[in-house]
Amino acid sequence: GIILIIAGNMLAFVLHKGIFSNIMWIIYGLLFVINPVYPERSGYNEKKAKMGARTAGIVCIIFGFITRFIV
How far apart are the C-alpha atoms of 41 and 24, rounded to whole Å? Predict the structure, then answer.
């Protein structure tokens, strides 16, 4: 996921198109919504941990939609 964000920022700087950064944030969020990943040793039950990961993914998607990355 972090590699996606770095690649999006590099594309935005090289091509002078800030939309690449926003697209990568949306893809990063979709990864967590589709396949929620959480630490196995977390003290939560599985259902709450998946819901927390999906919520974080939705926050990343919203971040990708509302920010304007100016290059």
Answer: 29
